[in-house]
Amino acid sequence: MDPLKQKFFEKSSKLRDELRAILKKHGTKKVDDVTLAQVIGGARGIKMMIWETSRLDPVHGIHFRGYSIPELKELLPKGDCGKQPRPEGLFWLMLTGDIPTDEEVRWLTDQWTHRCVIPQHVFDAIDALPVETHAMTQYSIAISAMQTESVFAKRYNEGLNKNEYWDPIYEDTMNLIARLPRIATYIYRRKYHGGDDIPRDFSQDWAGNFAHMLGIEGEDFKSLMRLYLTIHADHEGGNASAHTTHLVGSTLSDPYLALAAGMNSLAGPLHGLANQEVIHWINNMLDAIGTKTPTTEQITNYVNSTLASGRVIPGYGHAVLRRPDPRFMAQKAFAEEYCKDSDIVNVIWKVFEVVPPILESLGKVKNPWPNVDAHSGALLVHYGLKEYGFYTVLFGVSRALGVLSAMCWSRALGLPLERPKSVTTDSIKEWIKPEAKAPAKAKAKKQK
Ligand code: CMX
């Protein structure tokens, strides 16, 4: 067994036993009350799943295994890769709960380099699509096409003891993460650069090689990719892409099918596609105003006109967060250090001044602050990655780290098929009828 797998096995089998004991002794303990507003309003805030890899606080934002993003920037090993944390280190942390050493991160990079073997039919499946197909559609189809390689599906067909599910899930996770940058960059080069594909560079770390295969050289862009792929990785289990992957995985669909489903969820404009929508919206604004350096007043007018036309301001608001997203702030800090004079970055900062008070004044937006997607595109544009139709794929490569490491945990802990309960509107109308309580009262009277 490899060292990471061994460590994961030891930690997860211990927790699985603990969890079983907790369930046996305290299974009837109440942890939540559900209101009608939550039933109708998209299940906001209902606690209903276990997600080991990260926790989201409305005020303090995301914590990966208890560590905030600024803490991870300090603590995760960087090796000889500059100042930003390496996503390999975060993956190790999410899977084991421990900050890895430099040597462990190097081992993981090496593993992912060698596991990046993609069968030709995956490239053929991408090539069969019209080149203008959205990059997220191509990405999701490629992941599904790669399902032929699932170790879990093969071993399950052969007859697999449920206590061993975690093992092939771990193998699929490692293989998938190793392969995703290659798939993503193949799509990018095909869609936007006439198929001028760039071969891998075996000497680089996971994110550095990704930047290289995109065709954007320079140490600063590699640093950005390391930060980007780290901070987008996980956002607890309730967000749509994580929850979708979790739900599909709970049916014992393999990690390829579960991740493809999660990516389809990420592709919605209220979720991961918002990063594309932000730059689309900013470009439209700059075109409409006719300048690259709009004034506060011009931005205010444009924001108001977007709202008046019944659309949301992309990159603002969040279902859980109630303060500026620490992932936004981490990107802002990066921009302050690396490219503070960039026009597009300065537009993003001005929008950050303008939008929150306007959203707040509407009186209905629970979080007027920017989320992760408000800043990411401007940094990419600054370094020359201007094709915003590709941005959600970058998010999706990173998100795989979180949702797949969480899937390893789900199978190792023996979590069951997810199956919440739906109701019809007739049931709701029944619940709120005054006479709905009458039978119970009448019964109580009779008993007296
Ligand atoms: N612009 C305009 N109106 C907004 C808004 C925004 N950025 N954010 C919320 N609102 C509106 C909602 O549309 C809703 O209006 P109605 O009552 O008329 O339907 C009202 O404010 C209340 O919404 P909420 O409870 O504050 O927010 P939700 O939890 O329902 O939705 C989110 C959260 C992210 C979908 C929403 O804020 C939004 O649409 N933001 C813009 C899209 C975006 O940036 N998505 C990316 C999120 C991060 C990610 O997953 O990647």
Characterization of the model:
The chain is mostly helical. The chain has a domain of 295 residues: Citrate Synthase, domain 1 (Orthogonal Bundle). The chain contains 21 helices and 2 strands. It has a two-stranded antiparallel ribbon. A hairpin with a 3-residue loop joins strand 1 and strand 2. Helix 6 runs antiparallel to helix 7, helix 12 runs antiparallel to helix 13 and helix 12 packs across helix 19. The longest helix has 27 residues. The mean pLDDT is 96. Bound molecules: carboxymethyldethia coenzyme *A (CMX). Carboxymethyldethia coenzyme *A binds next to loops.
Keywords:
Citrate Synthase, domain 1; 448 residues; binds carboxymethyldethia coenzyme *A; two-stranded antiparallel sheet; mainly alpha; globular; 60% helix
Low-confidence stretches: none
**CATH fold-level name of the domain at 1-14 and 69-284 and 325-346 and 379-421:** Citrate Synthase, domain 1
The share of residues in extended strands comes to under 5%
Helix content: 55-70%
The averaged pLDDT comes out at 96
What series of H and E elements makes up the topology?
HHEEHHHHHHHHHHHHHHHHHHH
| Widest beta sheet: strand line-up | 1-2
Q: What is the structural class?
A: mainly alpha
Topology:
Layout lengths: L2 H24 L9 H5 L13 E4 L3 E4 L4 H7 L11 H10 L5 H14 L4 H8 L7 H11 L5 H8 L7 H27 L13 H9 L4 H13 L8 H11 L4 H12 L7 H16 L6 H13 L17 H13 L4 H19 L11 H10 L8 H22 L12 H8 L5 H10 L1
Antiparallel strand pairs: 1-2
